[in-house]
């Protein structure tokens, strides 16, 4: 049994044990107001300056991605962080989305689904993309909160580039579900 199936079975068991009367935390309007500010102000950023995304900001972004829900809590979508300018430029040339601006990103996060985690034929065509969507939304919200620019890149690979993309960026049994370009757009004040 693989780790995805173990997570799935554990999730199924926990659903049986959930009580409708479980204690739930509720937040006041003033406590959730910052969350709504982040959601209302969230936007796609395609213009980046030359400043690097800080390592601690990348850790925050990855932590936010890891808290995203997934189908039956399988957590089968993995993040692959692309940081070298050469690799980002290569991605820019291989993908349909991001042409002209992705090469200016400081980092690109690829969302790749380990298809071993998706067992049912009824879900393999769409569930990895749904799981990736939840991850992308968490990344967007975290980036807005910490002042990092982000823009989603659709998972369309130019037909003539599929084999090069797969050999350069994917492992066997993985499906590309999209990417997020990260970069700075406001200069940070020095402290």
**Unreliable segments of 5+ consecutive residues:** none
The helix/strand series, from N terminus to C terminus, equals HHHEHEHEHE
> Helical amount among residues, as a percent range?
40-55%
Mean of all residue-level pLDDT scores: 91
How many domains, as an integer? Answer: 1
CATH class: Alpha Beta
Mind summarizing the main beta sheet? 4 strands, antiparallel
How far do the termini sit from each other?
51 Å
Computed over alpha carbons, the radius of gyration is 18 Å
**What is the number of strand segments?**
4
Percent of residues in beta strands: 15-25%
Return the CATH topology: NADH Oxidase
Structural shape: flat
What assembly state would you assign to the polypeptide chains in this entry?
A: single chain
Read across the widest sheet, the strand sequence of neighbours is 1-2-4-3
The appropriate CATH architecture is 3-Layer(aba) Sandwich
| Estimated structural class | alpha+beta
Number of helices: 6
CATH homologous superfamily placement: NADH Oxidase
Topology, please?
Elements: H1 3-17, H2 29-41, H3 55-66, E1 77-82, H4 85-94, E2 107-114, H5 127-146, E3 149-153, H6 162-169, E4 174-183
Antiparallel strand pairs: 1-2, 2-4, 3-4
Helix pairs in contact: 3-5
Describe the structure.
The protein is of the alpha+beta class and 191 residues long. The chain has a single domain (48-183), classed as NADH Oxidase, CATH 3.40.109. It is 41% helix and 15% strand. The chain contains six helices and four strands. A four-stranded antiparallel β-sheet has the order 1-2-4-3. Helix 3 (55-66) crosses helix 5 (127-146). The protein starts with a helix and ends in an 8-residue tail after the last strand. 31% of the residues are buried.
